[in-house]
């Protein structure tokens, strides 16, 4: 008796996935609930576990193929016999493959002879190659063409003229170009970002913030803070708190368009963009207005680790009302962040640079950061956007406002 391996429910509005990687081979012994295959959706990666103990007797969907919810990925058999059948089938496939390889080699040898004969017959260069030969007076006597039947191509001549692309020595075995199929996550990121550009009337406003007071507060309190809460006091908790305060003051920035209605959110779920090997994801810090500095820092660390390990769930990524992205950790000085639909605003943080500033008529060196707010002009007027960013700036430059409700 066999048990089917089925694609599980993948979350709200997710109907299909790509088979990213089989963790077991056909014929392997498996235990119940042991991970068998990794699926990649447009939001997260999901591991499908074995429905029972036995042997992976059948794999019906190969890596890279797309499947729908409920589709059959393979089967778990309850005896070694089925495994042996799979092994015999695999051996037959290997044998057939060897025979095909032998035929291909034979065919290649015969084609090589034809190529050699045609080279001796002096196959004419391609038209584009002829033009280059004539324009540059190139002697082709000792040039071996890489085209069909030894024909000299344009690419064979470009290298002689010093125009060939400089290939990194680390990738010489892969040639001048390498084509890789986009992952489902990367394809979805591309689609959603392009939709944001096509749909929203996006503008960006800029300001700068003096980080002196925050840096001094961190320096004065970091040891005691970590001792009490077992987490470091970072910049992100200050930015989350400042944004929540500004969103409460300017609710349009926390709203979204649904059809012909404006939906104003009275809750504050802040998305924090995280770069991973697979692409950018935006896990959400839920109800950030009800969290302390320490709780925010812990939640951001937890979500960041889950993102880098590919352990984010659908719930971790849903429900955001506003996003913060920090290009400064990669050295970005200034950028125009793109909206994360259906949200109407995104704040871009950047690197902190010591710059000369005029303070009370005197030039002083201060740690400065540029801030960028991209917003949907269909909902948010320029006055609101600028005022929102000024509010964030004021709080960051004097965090005591947070505790005095100023």
What does this structure look like?
- The chain is of the alpha+beta class.
- The protein folds into three domains: 2-78, RNA polymerase II/Efflux pump adaptor protein, barrel-sandwich hybrid domain (OB fold (Dihydrolipoamide Acetyltransferase, E2P)), CATH 2.40.50; 122-181, Irregular (Dihydrolipoamide Transferase); 186-404, Chloramphenicol acetyltransferase-like domain (Chloramphenicol Acetyltransferase, 2-Layer Sandwich).
- Helices cover 36% and strands 25% of the residues.
- It has ten helices and 19 strands.
- Strands 9, 12, 15, 16, 17, 18 and 19 form a seven-stranded mixed beta sheet that branches.
Secondary structure topology:
Elements (H helix, E strand, L loop, with lengths): L1 E5 L9 E7 L6 E2 L4 E6 L4 E5 L4 E6 L6 E3 L3 E6 L2 H41 L6 H10 L17 H5 L25 H16 L2 E9 L1 H18 L6 H14 L5 E4 L2 E4 L5 E3 L1 E3 L2 E3 L2 E2 L7 H16 L5 H4 L4 E5 L18 E5 L2 E8 L2 E15 L5 H16 L2 H5 L2
Helix pairs in contact: 6-7, 6-9
CATH topology of the largest domain: Chloramphenicol Acetyltransferase
Taking Cα atoms only, what radius of gyration do you get, to the nearest Å?
30 Å
Poorly predicted runs: 110-121
Q: Which percent range describes the beta-strand content?
A: 15-25%
CATH architecture of the largest domain: 2-Layer Sandwich
Helix % is 25-40%
In angstroms, what separates the terminal alpha carbons?
A: 70 Å
How many helices does DSSP assign?
10
The CATH homologous superfamily of the largest domain:
Chloramphenicol acetyltransferase-like domain
CATH class of the largest domain: Alpha Beta
The coarse silhouette is extended
In N-to-C order, the SSE pattern is EEEEEEEEHHHHEHHEEEEEEHHEEEEHH
Q: From the helix content, strand content and strand pairing, which structural class follows?
A: alpha+beta
The profile of the biggest β sheet is:
7 strands, mixed
Averaging pLDDT over every residue, what do you get? 82
The number of distinct β-strands equals: 19
Q: How many separate domains make up the residues?
A: 3
């Amino acid at each position: 008796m066999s048990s089917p391996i089925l694609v599980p429910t993948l979350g709200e509005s997710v109907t299909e996935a790509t088979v990213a990687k089989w963790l077991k081979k056909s014929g392997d012994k498996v235990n119940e609930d042991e991970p068998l295959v990794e699926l990649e959706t447009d939001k997260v990666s999901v591991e499908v576990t074995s429905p029972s103990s036995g042997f992976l007797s059948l794999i019906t969907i190969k890596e890279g193929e797309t499947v729908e919810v409920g589709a059959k990925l393979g089967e778990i058999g309850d005896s070694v016999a089925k495994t042996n059948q799979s092994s015999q089938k695999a051996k037959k496939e290997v044998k057939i493959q060897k025979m095909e390889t032998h035929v291909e080699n034979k065919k290649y040898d015969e084609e090589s002879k034809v190529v050699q004969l045609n080279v001796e017959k002096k196959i004419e260069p391609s038209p584009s190659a002829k033009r280059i030969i004539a324009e540059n007076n190139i002697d082709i006597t000792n040039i071996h063409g890489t085209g069909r039947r030894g024909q000299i191509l344009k690419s064979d001549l470009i290298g002689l003229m010093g125009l060939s692309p400089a290939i990194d020595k680390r990738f010489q075995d892969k040639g001048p170009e390498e084509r890789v199929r986009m992952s489902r996550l990367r394809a979805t990121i591309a689609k959603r970002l392009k939709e944001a550009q096509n749909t929203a009337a996006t503008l960006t406003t800029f300001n700068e913030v003096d980080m002196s007071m925050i840096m001094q507060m961190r320096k004065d309190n970091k040891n005691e803070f970590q001792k009490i809460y077992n987490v470091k006091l970072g910049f992100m908790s200050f930015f989350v708190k400042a944004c929540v305060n500004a969103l409460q003051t300017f609710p349009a920035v926390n709203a979204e368009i649904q059809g012909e209605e404006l939906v104003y959110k009275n809750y504050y779920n802040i998305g924090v963009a995280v770069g991973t090997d697979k692409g950018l994801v935006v896990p959400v810090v839920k109800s950030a207005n009800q969290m302390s500095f320490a709780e925010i820092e812990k939640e951001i660390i937890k979500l960041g680790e889950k993102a880098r390990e590919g352990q984010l769930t659908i719930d971790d990524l849903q429900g955001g009302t506003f996003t913060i992205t920090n290009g400064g950790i990669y050295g970005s000085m200034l950028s125009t962040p793109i909206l994360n639909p259906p949200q109407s605003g995104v704040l871009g943080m950047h690197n902190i640079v010591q710059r000369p500033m005029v303070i009370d008529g005197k030039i002083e060196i201060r740690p400065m950061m540029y801030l960028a707010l991209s917003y949907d002009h269909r909902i948010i007027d320029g006055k609101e956007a600028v005022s929102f960013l000024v509010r964030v700036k004021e709080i960051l430059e004097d965090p005591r406002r947070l505790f005095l409700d100023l």
